[in-house]
Amino acid sequence: MSPEILRYAAFTRDPSAGNPAGLVLDAASLDDVAMQAIAAEVGYSETAFLVGGEMSSGRLAVRYFSPRAEVPFCGHATVALAVALAERRGPGPLLLDTPAGPVPVASAYDEHGHLVATLTSVEPRVAPVPPDQLAAALESLGWSPADLDPDLPPRLAYAGLWHLVVVAATRERLADLHYDMDRLGRLMADQGWTTVHLAWRAAPDTFHVRDPFPPGGVVEDPATGAAAAAFGAYLRELGLVTPPAQLTLHQGEDMGRPSMLIVDVPAAGPVRVTGTAVVIPD
């Protein structure tokens, strides 16, 4: 029997917005080939597979597949999974065993009666970008060093996955995204980057962001929870926010799927990312 495949949009309450995720809540009997085939058929940037654990204990094992390959972690599919489980079994805390490490997730109803989920990242890291890699990335994007915000220098940031963080000087530069997908994809595969996290600072605590995702076979991700957590760690590492800080990230607007991610940055340690999710009707 074929497994039931659920489809949710994460970081939105509008099924036509946010980032779509596939969910398979009973994937214990599926092997790697079957999960990869399902993810390719679904065609979303990621599909999450619940492969083990017990709901009674709140500890579950999850794997994530893009249309092309398995990935260690996916933030938007995690938020969608937590909301889907809360709808079926009630809200509360979970501990997800992912290939990137244990990820606590808590779901609850907000003041409007909507389910929201908050994931807590693995321990984040921030590292310099080798100049040759940055130059290659900018060339692939069609950007120049003059397009960058000098107060927010490029870095590599990790919160379960590595992302190249590049901050534009203007909203217009961020909006005008026409890049060489094959060239950037080869660079990202060589360096182990999952997305390039492009941002523009609208206010000290508000950013517009975009995430090219060629390694997953996706031109752009409409909402990227793992990159949002890494971005929070990046801002903290560079002293660009004063913890504890709460950030609002607007993503997906330039591709017609607006999303909103709330990022809580403590003084040290893992970063929290909060969002909603909604069923995508058949």
Characterization of this structure:
- By secondary structure, the chain is an alpha+beta fold.
- Helices cover 23% and strands 38% of the residues.
- The longest helix is centred in the N-terminal third of the chain and has 15 residues, at 75-89.
- The two termini are 20 Å apart.
- The model has no long low-confidence stretch (mean pLDDT 96).
- Please give the number of β-strands: 17
Rg for CA atoms: 18 Å
Residue windows where pLDDT falls under 50 for at least 5 positions: none
Instruction: Summarize the amount of helix as a percent range.
Output: 10-25%
Tally of helical segments: 6
Q: Which structural class should the secondary elements be placed in?
A: alpha+beta
Question: Biggest sheet, open or closed, and with what strands and sense?
Answer: 8 strands, mixed, barrel
Mean pLDDT across the residues is 96
Strand content: 35-45%
**Elements, N to C (H/E):** EEHEEEHEEEEHEEHHEEEHEEE
**Sheet with the most strands: spatial strand order:** 1-2-3-4-6-7-8-17
| Terminus-to-terminus distance | 20 Å
What general form does the structure show?
A: globular
